[in-house]
Amino acid sequence: MEDKKLGIIKENVDIPAIGFGILGAIILQIIFAHVPLINEVFETAPLNLQQWLFCLAVGSPMILWATVVNRFDPPN
What we know:
This protein has 76 residues and is mainly alpha-helical. It is built from three helices and two strands; from the N terminus they run ββααα. It has one domain (2-72). The chain has helices at 15-34, 36-42, 49-72, and strands spanning 2-3, 8-9. The chain has a two-stranded antiparallel sheet.
């Protein structure tokens, strides 16, 4: 990050928080898909391995895409 007043470049220290957020979302998704009580309430069924791999294959490129976009157009 660049402070325009002082011309100082600061290191982005929120990277671990983003990683924890992604990990937390994955854990919550696993809980949502596999806890029997939640399956009953929301009328869902657990995913098998092939379905999990498909979800990971579709979702993983979005993390890479977001990283590339932030390099060229940072939020600040």
